[in-house]
């Protein structure tokens, strides 16, 4: 029996609708949540992501401050722009789209954003608070994965979660979150140094693929009945498409769906949830600014 497809698109729409209702309440108080979106350069994937984020903000009744900077923007110029946004009380969140051009130190830029405006959840203060279970902005993709599972009624307590990928954006924070008491999972994180990857993936009750490697998780690597969450978004050449490429995940979807109990597709799986949780975090930042 084929796996149940987890419709991340519909779940994300519901999250965004809920945020939109709360935005109306804020608007009645004279507050319009605002996210400054900073894009440096002309990376086509980044432009696509930023456009999607700005559309979602508009649909939720929020304001987006669209800041497009040329590729040759210096690190100091970008830091000055962030400083201005940090001081602007009408801006509740700041998002600098990654990756940045090679001449700019990403860590320095992330650290320059005020933690209370870091809606990506990447600032060391937010990461540290997340680590010890204190209130913080949660990184959007890991948070989105957890909301997907909760919405689908998939139990995590006592389950073995195997995450393939150890990035600071997905793998590491997701591993930390799964070990929180409200999720209570046992976590294994695999990476390029892992020997016999399939041995570990076959142990998983919940398998999360977040390695950025197209189709690397195949049916023979998945335990029958496992829940498979595909975080990968890979662009591969496809002459039949107008764009010249198509999107695929880290999971061989057609093969794995015959083994898994639940599976996320690519696109319309985890991707829409990432944007939905960004909108959610922007709302949280606006609410916190009123209480401050």
TrEMBL record:
NADP(+) binds at residues 165-167, 233. Keywords: Amino-acid biosynthesis, Histidine biosynthesis, Hydrolase, Methionine biosynthesis, Multifunctional enzyme, NADP, One-carbon metabolism, Oxidoreductase, Purine biosynthesis. Its EC number is 1.5.1.5, 3.5.4.9. It catalyses: (6R)-5,10-methylene-5,6,7,8-tetrahydrofolate + NADP(+) = (6R)-5,10-methenyltetrahydrofolate + NADPH; (6R)-5,10-methenyltetrahydrofolate + H2O = (6R)-10-formyltetrahydrofolate + H(+). Homodimer. One of its GO terms (cellular component) is cytosol. Pathway: One-carbon metabolism; tetrahydrofolate interconversion. It comes from Candidatus Treponema excrementipullorum. The lineage of its organism: Bacteria, Pseudomonadati, Spirochaetota, Spirochaetia, Spirochaetales. Residues 139-287 form the Tetrahydrofolate dehydrogenase/cyclohydrolase NAD(P)-binding domain. Catalyzes the oxidation of 5,10-methylenetetrahydrofolate to 5,10-methenyltetrahydrofolate and then the hydrolysis of 5,10-methenyltetrahydrofolate to 10-formyltetrahydrofolate. PANTHER family: C-1-TETRAHYDROFOLATE SYNTHASE, CYTOPLASMIC, C-1-TETRAHYDROFOLATE SYNTHASE, CYTOPLASMIC-RELATED. Residues 6-120 form the Tetrahydrofolate dehydrogenase/cyclohydrolase catalytic domain. This is Bifunctional protein FolD. Gene3D superfamilies: Leucine Dehydrogenase, chain A, domain 1, NAD(P)-binding Rossmann-like Domain. Belongs to the tetrahydrofolate dehydrogenase/cyclohydrolase family. It comes from the Bacteria. Pfam families: THF_DHG_CYH, THF_DHG_CYH_C. CDD domains: NAD_bind_m-THF_DH_Cyclohyd. The keyword Oxidoreductase applies. InterPro entries: Aminoacid_DH-like_N_sf (IPR046346), NAD(P)-bd_dom_sf (IPR036291), THF_DH/CycHdrlase (IPR000672), THF_DH/CycHdrlase_cat_dom (IPR020630), THF_DH/CycHdrlase_CS (IPR020867), THF_DH/CycHdrlase_NAD-bd_dom (IPR020631). PROSITE patterns: THF_DHG_CYH_1, THF_DHG_CYH_2. GO terms for molecular function: methenyltetrahydrofolate cyclohydrolase activity; methylenetetrahydrofolate dehydrogenase (NADP+) activity. GO terms for biological process: L-histidine biosynthetic process; methionine biosynthetic process; purine nucleotide biosynthetic process; tetrahydrofolate interconversion.
């Amino acid at each position: 029996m084929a796996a149940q497809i987890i419709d991340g698109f519909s779940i994300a729409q519901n999250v965004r609708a809920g945020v939109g209702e709360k935005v109306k309440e804020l608007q009645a108080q004279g507050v319009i949540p605002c996210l400054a979106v900073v894009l440096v350069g002309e990376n086509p994937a980044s432009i696509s992501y930023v456009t999607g984020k700005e559309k979602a903000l508009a649909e939720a009744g929020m304001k987006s401050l669209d800041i497009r900077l040329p590729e040759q923007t210096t690190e100091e110029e970008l830091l000055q722009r962030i400083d201005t946004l940090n001081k602007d009380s009408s801006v509740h969140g700041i998002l600098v789209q990654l990756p940045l051009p090679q001449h700019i130190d990403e860590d320095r830029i992330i650290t320059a954003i005020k933690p209370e405006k870091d809606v990506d959840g990447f600032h060391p203060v937010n990461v540290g608070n997340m680590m010890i279970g204190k209130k913080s902005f949660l990184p959007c993709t890991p948070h989105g994965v957890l909301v997907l599972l909760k919405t689908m009624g998939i139990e995590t307590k006592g389950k073995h979660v195997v995450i393939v990928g150890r990035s600071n954006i997905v793998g590491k924070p997701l591993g930390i979150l799964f070990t929180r008491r409200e999720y209570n999972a046992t976590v294994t994180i695999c990476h390029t140094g892992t020997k016999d990857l399939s041995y570990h993936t076959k142990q998983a009750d919940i398998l999360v693929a977040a390695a950025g490697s197209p189709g690397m998780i195949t049916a023979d690597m998945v335990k029958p009945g496992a829940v498979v969450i595909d975080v990968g978004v890979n662009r591969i050449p496809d002459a039949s498409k107008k764009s010249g490429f198509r999107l695929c995940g880290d999971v061989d979807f057609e093969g794995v769906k015959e083994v898994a109990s639940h599976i996320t597709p690519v696109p319309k799986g985890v991707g829409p949830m990432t944007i939905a949780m960004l909108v959610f975090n922007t709302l949280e930042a606006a609410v916190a600014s009123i209480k401050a």
